[in-house]
């Protein structure tokens, strides 16, 4: 992927402040976050898209470090003791260990379920301070507070979305969860699985929304992938068998699925002003949600 001038400037600014060599940078991902591999130091640099709370980024590094050291849990780990950097536009750059990915490796829902079952069995003894209670739809709420052109999101849609965030939160607050509260990843979908350096051992990455909440939150992305992105029933069945819980029987299932629908607006929303394909995806998803369509498949990014 090509690195534009703005991204290159952000990268060089962050690296200059932390003594990291940006030479030969490769852009690996540019969606909810921008991710570079820097071969000179063999480090991964992760830059948030839009403003971010640097304390939350520090917390994710503290939590993943604690999980790896204390519980030998396969979480992506921060790079040495390098501190994150707040950039001029409010974005935050953080530095992580790099893991070379194999050319062909397909992750399964059972792979994800096994890691989540293990994560959800970890007690809170000695966990880093500052892990907050789960607050649904924070990422969408933050994105809606930014300057969004009417061509991307008309005022009627903006008002409706803000009202729906409140309504979904109220519905979730009334659910009597069957699984216990505890440490959750917060965005546990199969796309956040990584191989550990060309091996079959897997890591769980992208801990931006780690918190304390109902464990069902970490299960819903698997069922949502089946509903919206074309996964078959074998996908959810394999997860349920490995984790030993059938989420579709949960009293909060449909509310969780609706919440996940709204979460999937955030990424395309932030890129819609400059890239028509994201604007088209946003429109498809939002129109489907507003019409009450609970079964339509969505295009992926």
UniProtKB/TrEMBL annotation:
Cross-referenced SUPFAM superfamilies, in alphabetical order? Protein kinase-like (PK-like)
Q: Which residues does the UniProt record annotate as the domain Aminoglycoside phosphotransferase?
A: 59-244
Membrane-spanning ranges: none
> Taxonomically, which superkingdom?
Bacteria
Q: Which Pfam families match?
A: APH
Name-wise, this protein is Aminoglycoside phosphotransferase family protein
| Lineage per the UniProt record | Bacteria, Bacillati, Actinomycetota, Actinomycetes, Catenulisporales
